[in-house]
Amino acid sequence: MSKEKNLPKSSVFLILVLEEKTAEEVSTFLKIQPDFSGVNSLGQRIWQIYSKEKSDSNLEKHIESILKKIATVREEFKKLNQNHIATLYCSIEFSNQTKTSIELSSRTLTLLGNSGVKLEITRWQNDKLDSPSIRIL
Hints:
Blueprint: H1 3-6, E1 9-17, H2 23-30, E2 36-39, E3 45-50, H3 59-71, H4 74-81, E4 85-94, H5 106-115, E5 118-125, E6 128-136
Parallel strand pairs: 4-5
Antiparallel strand pairs: 1-3, 1-4, 2-3, 5-6
């Protein structure tokens, strides 16, 4: 089996559900252009950025990629979190039985906590939802 086949596939999205500001106002306030903005399937207005790491990069690397994007505007980001819901959605797919768990460093967890972001991890096994999402609020 190739090394790539053994690695879990990951993706990470940071989504702000907009209650008061428009996507354009958020972009101007943070000086960050979203990778997507619009209306989600629940009819909520959202502003979204995502990790551009390869899917076989480890989950923590994806999370760090997002945290780096907001690092220079973390105080402004915290202010947005007072009136908007910010969630870091992590999706991880385990394609075989050699690895079935993930770890996040205390540093990453501290940075997430300090940013006021909710964390949701969805686990997949061979293209099927394996377990309910894990939410850390």
